[in-house]
Amino acid sequence: MSVPIDLQKRLSDAPVKSESAWQINPSGWQELGAQLVYTQDASGQYLSFYWQEAERYDLRPEAIAFSSTNEAFGPTAIDPYLERLRQILETLVPQRFQCQFRYREYTFPFDLVISPILMPDGSATRVLVMGSQVEPHLAMVSNNSIAAAQTIEANLDIQDELSACSKEKLSTTSSGVDEPSSFKNYQKLLSKISRNIRRTLDLDTIWQQAVDDLGQGLGVSRCIICPYSHSDPEVKVVAEYQQDSATSLLGQKLKLDKPYLTEALTNLEPLVVERGSSPETLQQSMLIVATCYQNQPNGLIRLDRENCFGDWQSEEIELVREIADQVGTAITHATLYKELERARQEAEDASRHKSEFLANTSHELRTPLNGMIGFLKLILEGMTDDPEEQMEFIQEAYRSALHLLGIINDILDIAKIEAGKMELELSQLDLDELFEDVEDFTKTQALQKNLSFRIQRPPTRDKITVYGNYQRLLQVMLNLVGNAIKFTHEGGVLITAEVVRKKVVVQNQELPGMVKVRVIDTGIGVSLEKQDRLFQSFSQVDGSRTRKYGGTGLGLTISQKLIEAMKGVVNFYSMGEGLGSTVTFTVPLYQDVVMGSEQPTDVDALI
C-alpha cells in the first residue's frame, strides 16, 4: 500500500511542527479505512496524530504533539520500530507489518502500513503511518509488565521463513524483536524489482525484468505476464521466466473464459488456484494477480509451482501484490510514452510529407501556368499569323488552365477534408450515366497511349440507381481512371461494376445493398511494402517519380475520404511492381435490381 498522490502532495506541502498539522478531519481518515493515522520524522517524533479510540482512553492528540514514540503513546519495542522508519526513508519503499503499541496500562496490537512522504525533489524525511487494530478487544496489562509487552511485540513480528515446499521457524533475539530473514529478503526483492522497472520506459524490458526477478526471487517453476485490454477475449504471453524442465508458453494466447482469470481481473486481488484435490494428486499451484492502474486492470501475472500443495505464504502473496501494482503503473507510463513517441513520429512524418508535397506541387503549379503564359504571350506578340495555329495555341493554354484548376481543386478539397468541413448532399443517380461521362472524359487519353479502354456493366434487366453525390463520384472515378491511364504503358484499363446484396443503413434509410466498382489496369503496379503509403495525404509511393509522372499525390486520399463520406469503402490491390493494380470502391445501391445472366470479368482482354 502506498500513499495516494493527492494525499502525498498535501502531506509533503504541510508545515512541519506547526499547530495546523494537528487540525485533522477524522472523517477524512475514516474514508481511507484507517483507525490510526499519524506522521513522523526519522527520530520517531509525531508531526500529526489521529486515533479513532483516543477519546475513549482520554488521549488528547495535542498532548503528544511533537513527542517521540517512547512517550505517552507508541510501540512497546522502540528500537526495531525506529530502524524500520530509517529503512523506509532510505529505500523509499513502503512496508507493512504488525506492531504492539502501549498507552498507560493498555496495549494495542496494530496492523501498520508505513509509507514515505515524497518531497518534490524525490527524497523523503517523513513517513505516513496508517493502522488498524488486529483484535477487536484490548488487552490490559499492569504497569510493571513492559517486558511482557515487548515479548508480545516480538511474537507479532516473527514470521515463517519460506521455501519451495517447507517452513522453518526462526528464533527471537535478546533485543525482543527479530525480523525473519525471509521478510528482509522480500523487502530486498521488492526494492530490486521496483528499481529495475523504474529505470526504463521500454515495455518489453519492464515485462521481462518483472518475470525474471519474481521467478528467481520466489523460486517458482514459471512466471509469465500478459498485457490486457478491456475488449480482449484473450491475452498473449509476452514475457516468461521458466525453469529448464518447464514447457515454454511465450507467445501463446490464453482465453479469458476461465473463471479464475475473470475473477482476478474483476476483483484485482491475488488468487491462488490449485489444480488437484489433494497434496497427492496436485500437479500445479498457481498464483494469479492482475496488474492495474487507477483500479483498471492492464495485465496479468501468473506464477506456477509444480508438485506443491498450499505453498503460497501470505508474505509472498503480499509481495506479488505490491509488484503487480508497480508493474501496472510502469506499464501505463511506458504505454503513454510509447503513444507519445508514435504521435511525435507521425507528426514528423506528416511534416516531411507536407514539405515534399509543397516542393512537388510548386513544380506542378508552375508547369501549366508557364504553358498558359507562353502560349498567350506568343499570340499577344503576334508571333503567329495563321488562324489555325492561333487556335491551337489557345486550346493548349485552355488545357493548361484546366490542369491548373484541377490541382487547385485537389488542394482545396484536401484542406476541407482535414478541417472536417467536407459536407456532401446525397441523392439518387444513374450508374450508366456516370460511366458514360467517365468514358467521354478519359477514353481519348487511353487511345492516345494505344491502350485498350473498356467498361463492363453489371448484367441487369433494369437500370442501376445508386445513392451518392454525382459530382464527387465523377471526381473519384476520374481520379482513379486518370491514375490507371497515367501509370499504364501497355495493355489497357477495364472498369467493372458488381451488385452486392447486403442491407445497409445510410442517413437513417435502409438500402438493399452496395455497388462495387473496380478500376483494373495493367500498369506499373506497387510493391507490397509501399502500398501502405498510397492513402497518406501529401505522399506518393516514390517521390522520385513525381517529375516523371507528375501529380500532387492527393488523388487516392481525396477519393478515399469522399467515398467514406458516402458510406463506402476504398481498397487497393497489387501483386507487386510491373503486375498492374486494381482499385475498388463501394457506393450504396438505392433500389434492388433484377439480375440477368452473369458475365465474367474479362481481364485478359486488357492485354
TrEMBL record:
SUPFAM superfamilies: ATPase domain of HSP90 chaperone/DNA topoisomerase II/histidine kinase, GAF domain-like, Homodimeric domain of signal transducing histidine kinase. It catalyses: ATP + protein L-histidine = ADP + protein N-phospho-L-histidine. It is an enzyme of class 2 (transferase). Residues 333-360 form a coiled coil. GO terms for cellular component: plasma membrane. The keyword Kinase applies. In the N-terminal section; belongs to the phytochrome family. This is Circadian input-output histidine kinase CikA.
